[in-house]
Structures are given as structure tokens and as C-alpha cells.
Design a protein that fits this description.
- The complex is a heterodimer.
- Chain A is built from six helices and eleven strands.
- Chain A is α/β, with parallel strands linked by helices.
- In chain A, the strands form two sheets. In chain A, strands 1, 2, 3, 4, 8, 9, 10 and 11 form an eight-stranded mixed beta sheet that branches. Chain A has a three-stranded antiparallel beta sheet with strand order 5-7-6.
- Chain B has one domain: Glutaconate Coenzyme A-transferase (3-Layer(aba) Sandwich).
- In chain B, the strands form two sheets. A ten-stranded mixed beta sheet of chain B has the order 4-3-2-1-5-8-10-11-12-13. A three-stranded mixed beta sheet of chain B has the order 7-6-9, with no helix packed on it.
- In chain B, helix 2 packs across helix 3.
- The interface between A and B is large, with 49 and 40 residues.
């Protein structure tokens, strides 16, 4: 029998080691797996590399992880966002490294990792500071930049509902990076508001099929 | 001189959006454009976080914390709207599926170069978001900006002083003083606000301007 449910968030993040590369879903605070990140904080793990669109909001989730200086490096597109003071303080102190990546490139790098693609050429960032040092190629008269896949040890994601196989559906714009991050990590951990019986999710509306998901934990929100 | 307010610039930019267009509005000033889409035109607004058919800000009591726009403000979904994940949102942007992106800018050059992602202040971390994707991916790029900085420096320049978002992409510029097209023959002024003559506009602009023969007065209703 396939049963990816785990009993609590601590069990959900078990095995994530110091120095790991992690993906955190969310766009700002929407779709951010705050409970899983809190479990990671409680586990004491440190020296992390985190890819996330933003840099944490307020003092919970990623913001708190950064405040506690557990994140060595962040890979993101837009660190300055609503209430990102924890990141800004760490950045001003030189306590965190920033790799700034255009948002579509960030997403596509994860898709490439998930799809087994060794790299891709994109027009995004061609001729700009963010392309410095990167291989370029002219295709149909336009300059493209070579980008590499972004593969992680684990992805922490958030969905509305799951069944015990790990099929996922999301809610409105909280979907954002969750499905693509679910494709790009060795260990994919989903917190969900509600666990539902196998077979009760409409197969036509499942957004993340169970093959991508390893662990499910119900958190009630 | 009768300058346009920020909302009036947004009104002016909205008048040029055609019926049926799929449009991304950048964060900041361009977001205001959604308030002024002319009645009778169906325009589908795209948001980079996975929304097509974005509506206005929610009425009081209708707020949904899971429904936000690119600026992380609360928004709504119109009938016909759809949700999708980030990779599809950026496939739409990067794959040339959007008709138009209206973006804010720190500077634009006479070649249509766009600078809108960093002012290289060592004290603040840079943020690029979806700006570089939109700048090269949307079929047409128009920018909305104040003609001059608070200190009076021109933002429409021979060359951008800030790092580029993309080179040679801007086709039309809306400011509080004028509507200017970026063409192979340089910058063509299409509209100017009342009480400003062409010499006065040129004085406030670093790049060389040409005045279109059929230029018009730029006026907007109170907004």
C-alpha cells in the first residue's frame, strides 16, 4: 500500500541535513509552507541554501529561519518585498549570500531539473549584469543566455488537499511555485490543509500528480 | 503647464490597450492602469504569480488571502479567469504570448533600453522579479514613468545610467508631460501637456526628441 502520510511536521522534515539545498514554495507569504519551515527551525538544521521567490515575510517561516542565521545563501528573484526586514538585516551584516535570478529563469531552472534537461538558453537577462560570466549564443539573430538546472535535496511545499498517494490540489494564487518545485527535488514534502480519501480528488483537476510527492502532512490550514 | 497626475498617466496608457488584449501590468504605477480600461473593452490581465483575468481590488468583506497580485496586494478574479502555476505564468511571458506589458522604469534610453531593476545602492539588496522576463518576452513593451526625478534629472536619456533590464525593447513612453514613441528615427513626441512647448519638453529630456507633425495636446480627465 502506498501511504505518504506522516504523523507530524517534525517527521515530515526528518533527514534534512546541515548544508542542504532546499526549495521553499510561495509568492510572498501566499503558498509558503510556514509549518514545515518551523519544523526545520526546530530541528536545528543550519548552513542551508534556500531557493525561494522572495526572502521571507514578517518573522515567520523563511524570515525566521534567516533571522536565526540558518541560511547561508538565498537564491531568489525579489528579496525586497513586503516586510522583508529579517533578510535585509542579515544582508546588511553580510550574513547571507544572495544569488539574484530573474523570476522566470528561476522557475525554468527548476523545471529543467525536474525534466532532466541539462540547461537551456533564454533571452531573459541577455546583455545585462545578471548574465555576466555566462555562456551566450546567438539564435535567429538574438542573444540567448545559457542557464543551468536548479536541483535541490528537498522541496517544502504547501497545498490545499492531498490524498495518501500525494496527489495535490491548490487554492487560487497559492499554487504559484509549488508544482514546479515539486518536480525539482529529491525529497518533496507537502503540508496540506486537508487529507482526503484516495479517489475523492477529481483526476481532471489534480495539479501535482502523486509521483512527484514523497511525504504529506496535514496541518489544518 | 498642466502636468498629469500619476493616475492621469495611467488613464492615458489605458486608452491605448486594445479590446481582447492579454496584458501584464508591472508593479507600482502601471498597476493603476487597471482602473482605467475603457468601458466596453475586454482586456485580460495577467499576473506573474499565476493568474489570468485578474480583476480590481476586492470590496471590503470580499478579501481572500490566497488571491494576490504581483505587488502582493489583494486582488480578485473575473469570470473567465484562470489559475496556473509559476512555470506556466512565465511560459506565457517568455514565450511571447502576452500582447503587451506596461512597466515602470527608472530610466529609458533613446534606443528603447530599459532600466528598472536596480539603482545600485549598496545599502539595499537588488530585486529583479519578473522584470527581465517581461522586458524580452512580451510582444510589446510600453513604460510609464515620471518625466524627471524628484531632483529634476531627466529619466529619458541618451544612454541609461542604471544597469539595464533589457536593451532596445521599449516602444512607447508615457510620462506626466508627454507621450513619446521610440522609433528607428529616434524619439518622436506624439503628445504634450498644455502650457509646455517643445523646447521646454526637450529641456527636461536628455535624449534628442522630434515633434511629430500631427502631435496632439495631452489631456486627461480628473482621475
Amino acid at each position: 500500500m502506498i501511504d505518504k502520510r506522516v504523523k507530524d511536521v517534525a517527521a515530515a522534515v526528518a533527514g534534512i541535513k546541515d548544508g542542504a539545498t532546499l526549495l521553499f514554495a510561495g509568492f510572498g507569504a501566499v503558498g509558503e509552507p510556514v509549518e514545515l519551515i518551523q519544523a526545520l527551525i526546530d530541528s536545528g538544521v543550519r548552513n542551508l541554501t534556500v531557493a525561494c521567490n522572495n526572502s521571507g515575510t514578517g518573522e515567520v517561516g523563511l524570515a525566521k529561519l534567516i533571522k536565526e542565521r540558518r541560511v547561508r545563501k538565498i537564491i531568489c528573484s525579489f528579496p525586497r518585498t513586503s516586510d522583508s526586514h529579517c533578510f535585509e538585516e542579515a544582508y546588511a551584516e553580510g550574513a547571507i549570500e544572495l544569488e539574484l535570478v530573474p523570476q522566470g529563469t528561476l522557475s525554468e531552472r527548476m523545471r529543467a531539473a525536474g525534466a532532466g534537461i541539462g540547461g537551456f538558453y533564454t533571452r531573459t537577462s541577455a546583455g545585462t549584469k545578471l548574465a555576466r560570466g555566462k555562456e551566450t549564443r546567438v539564435i535567429d539573430g538574438k542573444e540567448y543566455v545559457l542557464e543551468s538546472p536548479l536541483k535541490a535535496d528537498a522541496a517544502l511545499i504547501k497545498a490545499l488537499k492531498a490524498d495518501r498517494w500525494g496527489n495535490l490540489v491548490y487554492r487560487k494564487s497559492a499554487r504559484n511555485f509549488n508544482p514546479v518545485m515539486a518536480m525539482a527535488a529529491d525529497l518533496v514534502i507537502a503540508q496540506v490543509k486537508e487529507l482526503v480519501p484516495l479517489g475523492s480528488l477529481d483526476p481532471e483537476t489534480i495539479v501535482t500528480p502523486s509521483i512527484f510527492v514523497d511525504r504529506i502532512v496535514e496541518v489544518g490550514r | 503647464m498642466k502636468q498629469l497626475s500619476r493616475r492621469q498617466i495611467a488613464w492615458r496608457a489605458a486608452q491605448d490597450i486594445r479590446d481582447g488584449a492579454y496584458v501584464n501590468l508591472g508593479i507600482g504605477l502601471p498597476t493603476l492602469v487597471s482602473d482605467f480600461i475603457p468601458k466596453g473593452r475586454e482586456v485580460v490581465l495577467h499576473s506573474e504569480n499565476g493568474i489570468l483575468g485578474m480583476g480590481p481590488a476586492p470590496e471590503k468583506g470580499e478579501e481572500d488571502p490566497d488571491l494576490i497580485n504581483a505587488g502582493k496586494g489583494l486582488t480578485t478574479l473575473l469570470p473567465g479567469g484562470a489559475f496556473f502555476h509559476h512555470n506556466d505564468a512565465f511560459l506565457m511571458i517568455r514565450g511571447g504570448h502576452l500582447d503587451l506589458a506596461l512597466l515602470g522604469a527608472y530610466e529609458v534610453s533613446e534606443e528603447g533600453d530599459l532600466a528598472n531593476w536596480t539603482v545600485e545602492d549598496p545599502n539595499t539588496p537588488p530585486g529583479v522579479g519578473g522584470a527581465m522576463d517581461l522586458a524580452v518576452g512580451a510582444r510589446e513593451i510600453r513604460v510609464i514613468l515620471e518625466h524627471n526625478t524628484k531632483e529634476g534629472a531627466p529619466r529619458i536619456r541618451k544612454r541609461c545610467h542604471y544597469p539595464l533590464t533589457a536593451a532596445g525593447v521599449v516602444k512607447r513612453i508615457y510620462t506626466n508631460l508627454a507621450v513619446i514613441d521610440v522609433t528607428r528615427d529616434g524619439l518622436i513626441t506624439r503628445e504634450m501637456v498644455p502650457g509646455l512647448d517643445f523646447a521646454g519638453l526637450q529641456e527636461r529630456t536628455e535624449a534628442r526628441l522630434t515633434l511629430a507633425n500631427d502631435w496632439r495636446v495631452l489631456e486627461a480627465p480628473a482621475a
